[in-house]
Every structure is written in structure tokens, then in C-alpha cells.
Design a protein that fits this description.
The complex is a heterodimer of chains A (311) and B (539).
Chain A lengths: L11 E5 L5 H12 L7 E4 L2 H11 L2 E7 L7 H13 L6 E6 L5 H9 L3 E6 H5 L4 H20 L2 H11 L5 H15 L6 H19 L8 H7 L11 H6 L4 H17 L3 H9 L8 H8 L1 H20 L1
Parallel strand pairs in A: 1-2, 1-3, 3-4, 4-5
Helix pairs in contact in A: 2-3, 6-9, 7-9, 8-9, 8-12, 8-15, 9-10, 9-12, 13-14
Chain B lengths: L9 E2 L19 E3 L2 H13 L4 E6 L9 E6 L10 E6 L13 E8 L2 E8 L5 E3 L3 E6 L5 E5 L5 E3 L2 H5 L4 E7 L2 E13 L2 E6 L6 E7 L2 E9 L5 E5 L4 H15 L3 E3 L5 H10 L12 H14 L7 E7 L5 E13 L2 E11 L6 H17 L5 E6 L4 H14 L6 E11 L10 E6 L2 E6 L5 E4 L12 E3 L7 H15 L4 E8 L10 E2 L4 E6 L3 H21 L1
Parallel strand pairs in B: 21-22, 27-28
Antiparallel strand pairs in B: 1-11, 2-10, 3-4, 3-6, 4-5, 5-9, 6-7, 7-10, 8-9, 11-13, 12-13, 12-15, 13-14, 14-17, 15-16, 16-17, 18-19, 19-20, 20-21, 22-30, 23-28, 23-29, 23-30, 24-25, 25-26, 26-27
Classes of the chains: A alpha/beta (311), B alpha+beta (539).
Chain lengths: 311, 539
């Protein structure tokens, strides 16, 4: 999940540390595990060069920091490298890397910098068998952390509440689970996964209580990437539109939910199956291949709502 | 080497069938992976780097004869392909559409590593975008990997052929010497592919190019051509051939001697080659540099090779050199050194050529040899090349060392006869080096490297002490000049060098590797240049 083409879209990853050759070894380990992201990662052993790079690029949103920063405190180094990106209003995250054994200093640094998400071993990162797995895990953590920054838990509950009754709990859970199911196989960026998750809810809040969104410009901006509010009714039309994958997936999920609401999901997916052939759009093929799971999700969520209502 | 603006030079893509035709430098065992992440990474590399890839489809997947050039693609909405489109030009396989495929074999190459897999056809061939056929296949479940063990070969266009002297193949047939006109179709440093009016059998003979001859062995190909594998008699002969080859492969390169010394000095000054090391040179030093270069002229291809790249206006743009600098027991150790270039973005590809020619040149030299190079890791381009290379060859191999350098002066106090020294000529100048010591020490002539970087001691192995290093330095001083000699000392980065004193120097990395690993270095250079260029263009 952290190695596909658009995993880190819009970001540059920076590796920094003073241990000789370690930053470039980490850069190359990531490049070998994820050739698609090779040009998105840059490494440095000179602090001034790293900082100048961050200032000139202003898109270094993720730092892989080796805990050997020479004479400079590691936490300070992270904060300084993160600053140029954070001036744009977005948080910068990272991971701290140790030489095989966690150190007291490293653990302190992790406490001081809540945006350092994991404390990992360089040996694991450089192990060809593990690099991709670590990248996947890091990406997952990064996406969750960023989402949590943009929409804290309290706000999440508020929005869910404001979205009702336009979006019921069943709607929200069904769309969220189907999104998770389908997005795992699609070439989406970290920010698009957040957009897809929240766009239906933000759309419903906009319809019912637009002023509630005014303080949350960042979230609204992110959700506009999937633009699920203007979904075509005909799902087959969605596959043919020349919009971004994020928009097409967003529309597809809304359309699937609508079909579920109208008790037409099963029959539609059967019909869609006749369109599934080599060369058909990837999104169509994916939905057809995951038909059983989609129906299962629909069944489970509807059953849960029924039991809740009955209980 | 592809340039962004000049695509008349075509590198012949690697065809794994070729490697059986006596051109292999060394072949790695074919490895098979069924790890989906490894397979995905290899495919990702292919899809990312269109200018550096090629692929062939084999309709007869069992025998894998008659590969058809193709390209692969997939629906970019997917993270990893669940089906792959094979796209073939109609003219490449005219009866493709009529052929029933169940299984196909695909070979693809990217950055000189070749992969092979079998796949099932998911659809019959169909016409695609008017001029192409498309067939959709399953993605690979297993991937065979083998590295290209062949030096680059240049495809000879009619324009390139005009640059070559008249070429004939001379071999004895039935006791009679026959001279046969040949047309060179592909040209490499160790071999060429030729077409002749008559089919050549497997035989020894001589290739005559203009006024010099190269012994070679001819091997016919199934297509009716012949591969001539060279057997250079000496390095002069190799050097002469290199100077023909580089006209085609590296058209911007010329020997340093074809420029005035003043022009090259100016290049070094303007590119900050002097400035980043010792600072600008005094008039006396410049005079001595020019004098040394005169001494070195006859060393070209024997113990040195010095080339300069010209820009589009013919002015010197950059320079790079190789020099026989040490002996590791009996094995000559050549050093990449003295690379400089003007920092002009549109000439990034020329800078790449200044790296590539050296690796190709040494890989093709007839004698066994080793290679060494110093660099400063602050050049992320260089760090990328050599770290990528060291990780691709073997994650655990000691080829790349973090070091510190000091420039120390050694008095000629000691002449330790237990240190075995060897003396050889570099042109009309003299060089002395150790032979069978874990400490490499060598010096002379002073400006073999214009920054005096090849009067040096490399003490990275065998845990030498400062005292041992000092003895080596003093012995070299004593034997070379009998006068105090300033020598660059290279030690591991955590060595306590303070006892030796000296002035800190710039380089902080040392790389040492074997000749048969140069192919991997070529791949690493090419890949690193591609990455750096793309990063620059994206910025």
C-alpha cells in the first residue's frame, strides 16, 4: 500500500542522518521496493543541504530520520525539517530509525515529536524481504495520522451526527467498508483515500448545515477531490467518464449505496458481470470480482441496523 | 547513451538469446521468484522507465524462437496489474491476428536486467489503434531474472556507417587467405555484428579496419549474420579500436591531447575542479601540470586514458580519466579520477557520458584488472550511483567504504626493504607503487591527477597502524624522489588519523570493485542518471 505509483502523490520523502551511507542506503532500499516512488525520495547527510532542500521544495511531507543526527538534537532536526511544509498548513510526519536497538534518546524523541509515527530498525528497513512491508505499514499509519489531524475524533462524531438523516449509519458503514475494500486494489494517493472516506459525509453536512463546514477548509478541500456529490445516476456511465480515479470511485460507491437502498444491488451487480471481460475498465472488473464481498457488506450492515432497531 | 535531444544513436536492446554467442563477460545464475512483491517491483521498473526498457513476446513460448518486439501496458487505475496488454506493431507480426494463442512467453529488459515470464492469453488478438495488435494476458506468477552480461552495442545507421573506415574480414579458407567485405550492423567494444556477401563459418581471422587489424573469432548467427568476438593482442590495439568505437558511442568525446593544455586548465578552473580540492593553482603548478600532461601523452591506452567532452559548440564541457594507479598483488588497479563538468542542465547527458565511457572502457580492456574511485558523498548523484551499485551487487559485500582523507607530507627517512615496490612508466614519467601489501601506496608523476590525488596511500584493509602508514609514505618518498613528498592518505572513517597530522581533504567515500562487476556499475550509472534527470525535470 505504500509502494504503488500514487501512494505518495504530492509529497517528497526525505531521509536524513549522519551515519555514513545510511541515508542513501535507505533511499535505495525504498527505491528498490517501490520503483514507482524512486524519484520522490531524496537523502542527505549534511543538515544544511537537507534543510535547504526542504525550504526550496516545500513539499517534504514525510521524513525518515536516522536518530544519529550528529551534534544536533534529533527532535529539533525533525521540527526544522518539517517546518517549510508545515507553513503550508499541513502536518509533516515521519519515522525515526535506529541502528538495531532502541535507545533512550530515541524513545525520548518519539515522545517529544508526536508526528514521528514509528521507531524502526535500519536493518529491517534495508532487508529486501521487509522493506515493502514496512513501507506499507508506514503509509497506512501516515494516512491515519493525517486523517486524524484533519478530522479529530470529536469532530468525526459531530459530522456523522450532522449528516443524519440524509446519511444513515447503514449508509455510512456500507460506503466506508466498500471504499476500504475497493481502494486497497486501486492506485489512489494517501489524500484521496481520506477524501473518499469523508466526501459523502461532508457532502451530507453541506446539504444540511453548511455553516458547520466553514472552520474546516482543509477537510472540504480534501473532499473535493472525490466530488461524490455530483455522481451520475447511471453507474455504467461512471466507468466511461474521463475524470480522476478518485472521482469515479467516489461516484461508484455512492451509486452502489443508492442501489442498495433501492434493493437493486444484487441484480445490478449480476448485470454488471456480463460486462466483465479482458480489457474492461479496471474499476468495473474490480467491482464485479468483489461482488460477493459487497453483497455481504450490504447484508451485514442492514442486519446490524435491523437488530439495533429491534433491540 | 541516449540524449534528450539526439536520438540518432540506438542502443541495441538486450536479447537474452544473444548471451550464448560468446560475448558474455560473466553470467549469473538465473534466479526464479514467485514473490509477488518482487514481481511487482520488476514490472513497476519496466512501466516507469520507458526510454530504458525493451520487451519481446514469443508466441512459441516453449522454444522461445522469433521474439517479436512489443510493449506492455496495464490499466493505470490498478495498483498492480491484474491483466497486461501486449501491444505489437502490425508490421512486426502480420499473421498475429490469425494465430491462436493460449500461452505466451515475454522477455523484458530494463536497466540491463532481463526478466522472463510465461502468461496465459485472456483474449484473442484484436486490432488496437489502427496500426497495432493487442492481446491481453495474465500477469506473471513467476519471474525469471538474469542480468545482462553484455556490454552495450550500437545499432549502425547509414549515417554512422559513413563514419567508419573500410572494413574487411580476413580468414584462411582452404589454406588461402580470403578478404571479405563486411558491413557492420552492430558495434560494441568486445564484439561486432556484421553482414557479409558470404556466410562466415565459425573461424578465427582478423578484422581489418582502415590501417589496423584486430584478431577475432567469427560465430554465425541463426539470422545469417556473424558475431566477431575480438581478441586484442595488446592495449594499443584495444585503444585504437576504442577511438573508432567512441566516434559512434560517445561522439562528444575527444582525447585530452586534441585540446590545448590551456583550454583544459581553463575547463578545470571554470568547473571548479581545482577550487573544490586545493584551491586555485599557482602559475608554477600550472606549468608543472602542463609538463606532466606532455609526459603522459604516450601513456594513452597503456596506463592512462584521458578524454574531454565537447558541448554543441565544440568547446570543452567536461573531462574524465582513468589511470593505472596501483597493483593489488599482481592485479592492476585502475582509478576513475579527474572528472569535472560545467553545471549546465541541458548537458546532464554529457556528464553521464563522462561516467559511462570509463566503465565500458575498463570492462572491455583485455587484461584482468580492478577498479577504484574516491568521491565525496555530498554529491548525491555520485553517492546514488555507488550505493545503488553496491546494494545491487551484494548487500553485504565490502565494495564501498566511508573514509577520511588527509594530505600528509612524508620525509624520505625510511627505505623499508620489506615493502615490495614496483616501478612502471606512465608515458615518459615514472610511478612507484606497492605490490603485495594490504596498504596500497603509490606516487608519481605528481600531476598524474591534476590535483595530485594519485600520490596516495590507501590503508583500508588489514588494520594498519599510523606507524605502518608512515613507513609506507616515507619509503615511497625515499624511492621516488628522495625528497619530502606530499601524499593523500585514505583511512577508514573511524580511524584516529591525528597522529599523522596532515590537512583534511574532501572525499569521504572509496569504492573498490572487480572488472566483472563493471556491467552492474554501468546499469547503476544509467539508472542513477535517469533518476536524477527526472527529478530535475519534475522540480
Amino acid at each position: 500500500m505504500g509502494t504503488h505509483d500514487r501512494a505518495w502523490a504530492g509529497l517528497t520523502l526525505l531521509v536524513y542522518g549522519k551515519r555514513p551511507m545510511a541515508p542513501m542506503q535507505i533511499e535505495q532500499a525504498v527505491a528498490n521496493a517501490s520503483p514507482a516512488n524512486e524519484v520522490k525520495i531524496e537523502s542527505f547527510e549534511e543538515y544544511d543541504d537537507a534543510l535547504d532542500f526542504c525550504k526550496s521544495q516545500r513539499d517534504v511531507g514525510f521524513v525518515l530520520l536516522h536518530e544519529n543526527c550528529g551534534n544536533l538534537p534529533t527532535a529539533d532536526v525533525f521540527r526544522q525539517l518539517a517546518k517549510p511544509y508545515e507553513k503550508k498548513g499541513w502536518p509533516c510526519f515521519g519515522v525515526l530509525i535506529h541502528d538495531g536497538t532502541e535507545s533512550i534518546t530515541g524513545l525520548k524523541t518519539m515522545q517529544q515529536c508526536s508526528n514521528l509515527l514509528k521507531y524502526i530498525s535500519i536493518q529491517d528497513l534495508l532487508d529486501k524481504r521487509k522493506t515493502a512491508l514496512i513501507l506499507d505499514d508506514v503509509w497506512e499509519n501516515f494516512s491515519i495520522a493525517f486523517q486524524r489531524h484533519v478530522i479529530p475524533r470529536a469532530l468525526e462524531e459531530t459530522f456523522l451526527s450532522l449528516a443524519k438523516p440524509e446519511l444513515t449509519t447503514t449508509d455510512v458503514h456500507f460506503m466506508d467498508r466498500v471504499n476500504t475494500l475497493l481502494a486497497a486494489s486501486l492506485n489512489l494517493s494517501w489524500i484521496e483515500t481520506i477524501s473518499l472516506r469523508w466526501a459523502p459525509i461532508v457532502g451530507a453536512v453541506r446539504n444540511r448545515n453548511p455553516s458547520a463546514l466553514e472552520p474546516h477548509e482543509a477537510l472540504v478541500q480534501i473532499c473535493s477531490l472525490s466530488n461524490s456529490s455530483s455522481a451520475p445516476n447511471d453507474m455504467l456511465e461512471i466507468f466511461q467518464t474521463k475524470t480522476t480515479l478518485c472521482t469515479r470511485l467516489g461516484h461508484s460507491i455512492v451509486a452502489l449505496n443508492r442501489l442498495r437502498q433501492n434493493k437493486m444491488l444484487d441484480s445490478f451487480l449480476k448485470t454488471l458481470g456480463t460486462q466483465n471481460k479482458p480489457g474492461a475498465p479496471a474499476l468495473l472488473r474490480l467491482i464485479v470480482n468483489e461482488r460477493d464481498k459487497i453483497l455481504q457488506i450490504a447484508h451485514e450492515e442492514e442486519a446490524a441496523t435491523y437488530h439495533e432497531a429491534a433491540g | 547513451m541516449r540524449s534528450p535531444t539526439n536520438r540518432t544513436l540506438r542502443i541495441v536492446p538486450f536479447n537474452p538469446s544473444d548471451y550464448s554467442l560468446a560475448e558474455v563477460l560473466s553470467k549469473e545464475d538465473q534466479s526464479l521468484t514467485e514473490n509477488m512483491r518482487d514481481i511487482s517491483a520488476a514490472l513497476s521498473l519496466y512501466f516507469q522507465w520507458e526510454p530504458y526498457r525493451s520487451s519481446l513476446v514469443y508466441p512459441d513460448y516453449k522454444s522461445k524462437t522469433k521474439g517479436v518486439p512489443c510493449s506492455m501496458d496495464y490499466d493505470r487505475d490498478e495498483r498492480t496489474p491484474t491483466e497486461i496488454s501486449i501491444i505489437i506493431k502490425k508490421e512486426a507480426f502480420s499473421n498475429f491476428a490469425q494465430t491462436q494463442f493460449q500461452k505466451l512467453a515475454i522477455r523484458f529488459e530494463v536497466f540491463r536486467t532481463c526478466y522472463e515470464f510465461e502468461a496465459s492469453a485472456l483474449s484473442p488478438p484484436e486490432i488496437f489503434n489502427d496500426d497495432y495488435f493487442r492481446i491481453i494476458i495474465t500477469p506473471p506468477r513467476a519471474l525469471k531474472t538474469f542480468k545482462s552480461r553484455r556490454l552495450p552495442r550500437i545499432e549502425m545507421t547509414s549515417i554512422l556507417k559513413e563514419k567508419l573506415p573500410k572494413t574487411t574480414w580476413n580468414q584462411a579458407i582452404d589454406g588461402q587467405n580470403n578478404e571479405i567485405d563486411v558491413t557492420i550492423e552492430e558495434m560494441g567494444l568486445k564484439s561486432i555484428k556484421v553482414k557479409c556477401s558470404q556466410r562466415l563459418g565459425k573461424a578465427f581471422g582478423k578484422l581489418k579496419m582502415g590501417d589496423f587489424e584486430i584478431p577475432a573469432e567469427a560465430t554465425p548467427t541463426p539470422e545469417g549474420d556473424s558475431i566477431l568476438l575480438f581478441n586484442f593482442e595488446n592495449n594499443e590495439s584495444f585503444g585504437r579500436y576504442f577511438d573508432v568505437y567512441r566516434l559512434l558511442a560517445y561522439p562528444s568525446l575527444s582525447p585530452r591531447s586534441s585540446f590545448s593544455a590551456d583550454a583544459i586548465i581553463q575547463l578545470y578552473q571554470m568547473s571548479n575542479y581545482f577550487g573544490k580540492f586545493e584551491g586555485e593553482k599557482s602559475n608554477e603548478q600550472i606549468r608543472d601540470i602542463k609538463s606532466n600532461w606532455k609526459d603522459l601523452e604516450t601513456a594513452q591506452h597503456l596506463t592512462t586514458a584521458d578524454y574531454v567532452a565537447r558541448d554543441d559548440d565544440g568547446a570543452p564541457f567536461g573531462a574524465s580519466s582513468v589511470a593505472l594507479s596501483f597493483y593489488n598483488d599482481d592485479r592492476p588497479v585502475w582509478v576513475f579520477h579527474q572528472l569535472c563538468s560545467m553545471k549546465i542542465e541541458k548537458y546532464v547527458y554529457l556528464t553521464g557520458q563522462l561516467y559511462m565511457w570509463r566503465a565500458e572502457y575498463l570492462a572491455a580492456r583485455p587484461e584482468p584488472l580492478e577498479i577504484a574511485v574516491w568521491f565525496h558523498s555530498r554529491s548525491r548523484w555520485l553517492e546514488r550511483i555507488y550505493v545503488k551499485y553496491s546494494m545491487q551487487t551484494n548487500y553485504n559485500s565490502n565494495v564501498l567504504y566511508p573514509i577520511i582523507d588527509r594530505r600528509c607530507t612524508f620525509e624520505p627517512n625510511t627505505n623499508d626493504s620489506s615493502i615490495k615496490l614496483r616501478e612502471y612508466c606512465v608515458g615518459t614519467a615514472r610511478r612507484i607503487c606497492t605490490t603485495s601489501s594490504p596498504v596500497w601506496a603509490a606516487a608519481g608523476p605528481r600531476f598524474l591527477n591534476a590535483n595530485e590525488n594519485l600520490d596516495c596511500i590507501v590503508a583500508l584493509w588489514g588494520n594498519p597502524t599510523s606507524a605502518q602508514i608512515k613507513v609506507h609514505g616515507e619509503t615511497i618518498s625515499s624511492r621516488l624522489t628522495g625528497a619530502p613528498t606530499t601524499i593523500l592518505v585514505t583511512v577508514p572513517h573511524d580511524f584516529n588519523i591525528n597522529e599523522l597530522g596532515g590537512a583534511p581533504q574532501l572525499s569521504d567515500r572509496f569504492c573498490h570493485f572487480k572488472k566483472n562487476q563493471l556491467i552492474d556499475l554501468l546499469a547503476s550509472v544509467e539508472h542513477s542518471i535517469a533518476v536524477t534527470t527526472r527529478k530535475f525535470n519534475n522540480a
